[in-house]
Amino acid sequence: MRIYIIGYMGSGKSTVSEKLAKKLELLRFDLDELFEQRFRIDINRFFEKYDETLFRKLESRLLKETILLNNVVIATGGGTPCFYNNMEWMKQFGITIYLEMNPKSLVNRIQASKRKRPLMRGKSSADQLLEYVHNHLRNRNIWYSQADIIIKGESIDVNDLANRILAFQADKSSKPSIQPIE
Ligand code: S3P
Is-above-0.90 flag for pTM? Predict the structure, then answer.
């Protein structure tokens, strides 16, 4: 089993992936951490030194290397599903879980977090941040909404989520992956 947790910055992907891994007795990985370990650079620093285009290219390559991992929960970066064919690929080789959260909650959580986020640089006022997140989320929803399971990030019951994943998995494996031609 390979579970990909997707969602906007601040939606709680790290925490949920940890709880879920514990509950389902799976190993847990974080794509941002894998990136930093592999390229020996902090993501903020990477954005300063290079650019987002290169980040997305390397992020997509790294994502595809996770095909080598099994029985894992992988927390992705907020933008991971929205570039290249990443979303389609994650759905093909794993189960995707979207942690949906409204822009206001996201902004509160982003502001409360100590973590610096390159895409949030220069947006200092709450109003500026809210407008940015609102628009950005609307664009990203095209990908996020394709997730196999969508849950409200504000009120997650990990037991319930684990049951939904197991039911989804059972259903998926009972269907042929290639549809016969009628
Ligand atoms: C990004 C989110 C970040 C990180 C990078 C880009 C994004 O991860 O991958 O800064 O495009 O939303 P988190 O969602 O863990 O903050």
Answer: yes
How far does residue 78's CA lie from ligand 1's centre (Å)?
A: 4
Supply the residue whose CA is at minimum distance from atom 8 of ligand 1. Answer: 77
pLDDT of 73 reads 98
Contacts with 4 (C-beta within 8 Å, 6 or more apart), sequence order: 74, 76, 90, 94, 95, 96, 97
Closest atom of ligand 1 to CA, residue 9: 14
Mean pLDDT, residues 48-66 taken together: 97
Give the pocket of ligand 1 (CB within 6 Å). 9, 13, 32, 43, 77-79, 117-119
pLDDT band at 181 (very low <50, low <70, confident <90, very high): low
When pLDDT is cut at 50, 70 and 90, the band that residue 123 belongs to is confident
Report which of 144, 162, 41 is spatially closest to residue 91, judged by C-alpha positions: 144
User: What structural domains and CATH numbers belong to the chain?
Assistant: 2-159 (3.40.50.300)
Residue 87 identity:
M
Closest CA to ligand 1's atom 9 = 77
